[in-house]
Amino acid sequence: MNAISAGPIKTLAASGIPGIGSKLRHHRTVTPLQKDTDILEVGDAGVFFLSDMGRGVTGQVLYVDGGFSIMAG
Q1: pLDDT for 5-48, tens place per residue?
Q2: What are phi and psi of 19, to 5 degrees?
Q3: What is the dihedral of CA 69, 55, 39, 18, to 10 degrees?
């Protein structure tokens, strides 16, 4: 089993989270890529896991967060 840990994504559902705008701005300024997490990037990671390309990967968490996970610590 694998997992995807996505960075914050600006969605309609996320707009209900108090302070989401400041969280997104903070994410952009801290990450090496300095951009929002794109929902298509997260989808691409899922496709990788489900495809033959990911057949040898198991028990892993793939961070799709623009590098936030390596900067915030």
Answers
A1: 999 999 999 999 999 999 999 999 999 999 999 999 999 999 99
A2: 80, 15
A3: -50
